[in-house]
Amino acid sequence: MSTEQDAATRIPGRPSRFSADHPHYKWVALSNTTLGMLIATINSSIVLISLPAIFNGIGLDPLQPGNVSYLLWMLMGYMLVTAVLVVTLGRLGDIVGRVKIYNMGFLIFTITSVILSVDPMHGGGGALWLIGWRVAQAVGGSMLMANSAAIITDAFPARQRGMALGVNMVAGIAGSFIGLVLGGLLAEWNWRSIFWVNVPIGLIGTVWAYRSLHDTGVRRPARMDWWGNITFAVGLTALLAGITYGIQPYGGHTMGWTNPWVLAGLIGGVAMLVIFCVIESRVAEPMFPLKLFRNASFAGGNAATLLGSIARGGLQFMLIIWLQGIWLPLHGYDYADTPLWAGIYLLPLTVGFLAAGPIAGALSDRYGARLFAAAGFVVMAGSFAGLLLIPTDFSYWVFAVVVFLNGLGGGLFAAPNTSIIMASVPAEARGAASGMRATFQNAGMVLSIGVFFSLMVAGLAGSLPGTLSSGLTAQGVPAANAHQIAQLPPVGTLFAAFLGYNPIQQLLGPDLLGKLPAANAHNLIGREFFPHLISGPFHDGLVVVFTLAIVMSLVAAAASLIRSRTSRTAARD
């Protein structure tokens, strides 16, 4: 680099190594955006594993029917906002500068982490404080997610782009796995610490981003597509909220698919998204450039992203239920300790992902991305089949191998899939494309809540009532009471297992328990009765859930192999 060039690009008071054309700048950009993706995605799953500690901390009984909505919004609020906003913020980055939006995201994320950690209220008010500020935090997380891949794509040459995106995406998706372990550890100490942990990382990342990152990509003045933004936000929010609320019982049914509000959300959401597509096809500068989907590689890559995200999200929920509600109590762990140990026992999933991700990203630069992406989904499909074959009360080393393979498959496809998407768009659309990819990924996580919980509830509805009734009567519970309890919606039992609770004591009540022989009452509220009771019906539900996950993974593998006409003439991706 010449002295003239260095002087031209150096910002006063800033070391020259942070100059945009310095040979090391690309590594500065990669390391900061990787930190941003990691913190944003850890935060989506750290709450997932910590919900029992959070509910205890704010004095809220998660098993009360009226509190299910709080639980759902704590789960989906962050993911829903990121799914809705990432395209808008990616597009805004294309217009005003990707680094400017990214840096602001780091700052918002850090400030809201502080506010979340000092929740001053209890009960429903405390839950609403957390939900509301999690939504605000998601705005900052969306800014980070929407622009990180575009900043990396701008900074790296094509020959290294797959490797760089691989590191970034591995950090992003690995964050959702790391959050499970970190949340279990921190929640054991203090539930507020799951938000404290963001603060020092956020401060370092914010200062570093403002000091070192530069906009090096193509930027052009343009107008914001306000009607497109509004119809997309309203439509996607209504659709995803309707799917999520469909798992709650309504009108004597085990689920809420006949609820007028759920139907309004589903039908209205789809109608609004249709209007959104019409608007986007007619405006001069659309938020969501539908013409990008004319490229088969872009369309196939995003389809694979969506399917893989749904399958991965469903896997997390099912494994947490399996460990916290069944396997750990059967192996002598107190319910209060199950979040921590569930995170620890899921470490092979994270290790598999971290082992394969960076390697797949680097090798895809050399040998092409499609085969790696497709192979990753095939490995994931095989791991889902393995989870179907092992018993509910499994031998841990078998379980560890199977979930390691699932993480390995996820690592194989993550970076190559992102490389396929980002390489298929022109430079000026990278921010929008990055946001669109993140939208499909985050929407898939929200969809997984509705899809997989609905399938699990449907599976439980067939066998749980009979199992619950016969199990209770065998312990001396009067047949009428046992039958009444058995007819309760299975979603309550499912959430109890998800949160690591034994609901039998609450279902029976102190009066009924007091009339039973002491040995029977002790057995009913002990560690083993409830896990033994639901293990059979739960496995019936797993068959439905993981069969769909296998199908999704194989379809995603096929979508990853789709080539555009231009890419067919290239020697490699």
From TrEMBL:
It is a multi-pass membrane protein. It comes from the Bacteria. It is found in: Cell membrane. InterPro entries: MFS (IPR011701), MFS_dom (IPR020846), MFS_trans_sf (IPR036259). The chain crosses the membrane at residues 35-58, 70-89, 101-118, 130-152, 164-187, 193-210, 230-248, 260-279, 300-323, 343-364, 371-390, 396-415, 443-464, 541-562. CDD domains: MFS_MMR_MDR_like. It holds the Pfam family MFS_1. Keywords: Antibiotic resistance, Cell membrane, Membrane, Transmembrane, Transmembrane helix, Transport. Residues 29-504 form the Major facilitator superfamily (MFS) profile domain. PANTHER family: BLR6921 PROTEIN (PTHR42718:SF46), MAJOR FACILITATOR SUPERFAMILY MULTIDRUG TRANSPORTER MFSC (PTHR42718). This is MFS transporter.
